[in-house]
Every structure is written in structure tokens, then in C-alpha cells.
């Protein structure tokens, strides 16, 4: 049987998902973590107007000399407007309040001596300030119409603050795709249940939901179905009514009662663009792709480690691209302990970083079995071993895939 190369299936998934990318206009308050699809420009200059950096007195610098009393003609607070400053006078001013027209410096209250604070007071200063002292000039941060956030930016709290400050209420972002998860298996029980004979705890749905959510998706539904006839189809019909993508696990190999493959590999049942088969990859050999009601369905195998590996290697970056996120950067590493690898398939071994300056060193964690989920939890990377390589020695540099933290 000829096995599909990993890169080919990876591209097929990317191509299947590409058309679902869409742009939304969204309130800045709801945009944390989303990626801008367009450049955002400042609605206003920042600062919006000349304002005081200190609590103190706004003056004309030239009017100030050591010990000379100036009448205090007004008190300007944040949120109020200021009258122009007559020559030879001072305005009491608070931080963030507008600097009166005519004033060109602010003297901090700590460097002032106000006599009879309030109506009819005067103030003296120790020294003449320099022009511009403690005045935050309008537009000194950004001019109105200037770019405040570039297109393609993952919005961090600092971006949201800057956008709001510049009067930007809504931004254009790549929409998070709505993902539905359906896991299959009549042996599956929730972790809260007590197991009956033959049952195991269901684990793929929680792992997949976390993976999808951490790579730009919004998980809108999670379903666990048995392998009986019709169950999967019913849930798939439901999921494809609202989701942009469906991820399934299990039921894709060559045995009997493979509900995912039985329904979706058979084009007469209604699936389109269907491909089911084996990849030249381990773990994660059996895989499938299709559309159901036009919605992309990515069918991963059932073994828990296969699910992790196939998501990271095949699905992760395609999903990220839909959400406008960049692909996760790959690295290279050296495997410190001698390791053998069977020929003919690309192996993705679980590994753990073990230090190293420059090229990271990695030790292999556990064996190749795709059921070893507890062992896989101790890993933080995947090590890719080419199909042609049967023996890894510490002098070889091989690709490293960071596991989703
Ligand atoms: P399958 O691909 O459906 O034949 O499943 C392969 C192996 O993975 C079997 O041992 C299943 O019991 C196990 N498995 C399938 N789905 C899950 C799941 N959601 N959680 C935990 N184990 C699973
Ligand atoms: Mg199964």
C-alpha cells in the first residue's frame, strides 16, 4: 500500500481550511489575542491636547523669577477646559488638565509657595522653568491618522490600550474559526464515571479542545459518540450546521466499525473532497479529510498520542493561518541518547529538552507506542526522524517541533 507523504497531507489540510478565513469588525474590548487583518490608524492625536504632567502651576516661563509673586487666576482640573492665561499670572493646574493658552511651562507644586490658597492667592517660585517643562504636547505620542497597530499584529494588552487611547472603538481582525469536536468510540467513558468492563476514560476531546483553542480556534461543541450505526452521522449533521471546521478522532482505521471512515470515505453517503488512507508517518498513520455539508472535516486517528502528534504536525499551522496567526517556528536539535527508528515512515518521537547552548539537546521520552499518553505528558517536544534514517546519533541535527505549552 502506498502511503501519503506527511507534507502532502499537511498541504491538503491547509488547502481545505484556507477558504474559511474571514475578517470581522470587533470592539477593541473583545479583541485580545486576535490578529489584525488591516492596519489601524489613530482617530485623534495623542496626547489629544497640551496637558500638564504634574500637579502645580502653569506659567509663562518668562514671567517667572525667583521670589516674584504671581496672582493665581484660575484652577484647572482634569476634565475641564482652561481660560487663556493673562501675562504675569499663574494657573493652578492638575495632572492631565489642559494647559491654558499662553502658558508654556508647568512648575510642580513641590517647587512652589502659594500664599492663601484659593480665591485671590499668589504664588512664588524658586527658579524660572525652561520653556516646555512638564507640558505634554498634543501629538507628541502619535499624530491623528498615523498607524497605531500594523496589520497582522496579535493584539496584546498594550495594543488594546493604545487603540482605545487613540479613539479606535473597533478593529478588523481575523475571525477565530468555530471548531466542533466529535470523538468516537463505544469504549469511551467520561473521567467522572466508574469504568465498566471494556471501558476506558475518554481523553482526546479535552486534549483536542485545548489544542484548538490555543491555536486560534473557538471550540463551539464537543461530542462523544459510540461506534453504532447512525450516531456519528447525527452528530456530524448537527456540528456542520454551525461550525466552520469539524475535528474528529477515532474510527478511521481499517477494522470493523470505523464510523468516521465508513461515512466519510464513501462519497455516495454525501461527503465531498474525501481522502482516507495511511500517511507515511508514525504515530498517526490512519487519517482522513473530507467536506460534509461543505464544512471541512479533519479526521484524526483515535490513539491519544496519535491525536497529539497529528494535531501538532498536520493541523496546528493550518488552523493558525485561518486565524491570521503565524506558523509555530520550527527548530533543530541533537538527540543525546542513541536512538533507533524503523525505516519507511517519518517518526515523531516524544522528547524533552535537556539544555544545550545553541542547538538544543533533547532526550527521548518513552517508547514509540501511540497509546503511551501518560509518558507523552513528560515530553515537551517532538523529534522528527526522516523515513530514511534508522539510527540517530548525537552528532546529527534533526527537526524539533515544540509541543503546545
Ligand atoms: P480507533 O482509531 O478508534 O481504533 O482508536 C484507537 C485506540 O485509541 C483505541 O485503543 C481506542 O480505545 C483509543 N481511543 C480512541 N478514541 C479515544 C479517546 N477519545 N480517548 C481515549 N482513547 C481513545
Ligand atoms: Mg474507535
TrEMBL record:
It comes from the Bacteria. Residues 180-321 form the MoaB/Mog domain. It catalyses: adenylyl-molybdopterin + molybdate = Mo-molybdopterin + AMP + H(+). InterPro entries: MoaB/Mog-like_dom_sf (IPR036425), MoaB/Mog_dom (IPR001453), MoeA-like (IPR038987), MoeA_C_domain_IV (IPR005111), MoeA_C_domain_IV_sf (IPR036688), MoeA_linker/N (IPR005110), MoeA_linker/N_sf (IPR036135). One of its GO terms (biological process) is Mo-molybdopterin cofactor biosynthetic process. One of its GO terms (cellular component) is cytosol. Its cofactor is Mg(2+). One of its GO terms (molecular function) is metal ion binding. CDD domains: MoeA. Pfam families: MoCF_biosynth (PF00994), MoeA_C (PF03454), MoeA_N (PF03453). Keywords: Magnesium, Metal-binding, Molybdenum, Molybdenum cofactor biosynthesis, Transferase. Pathway: Cofactor biosynthesis; molybdopterin biosynthesis. Its EC number is 2.10.1.1. Belongs to the MoeA family. Catalyzes the insertion of molybdate into adenylated molybdopterin with the concomitant release of AMP. This is Molybdopterin molybdenumtransferase. It comes from Gordonia araii NBRC 100433. The lineage of its organism: Bacteria, Bacillati, Actinomycetota, Actinomycetes, Mycobacteriales. The gene is moeA.
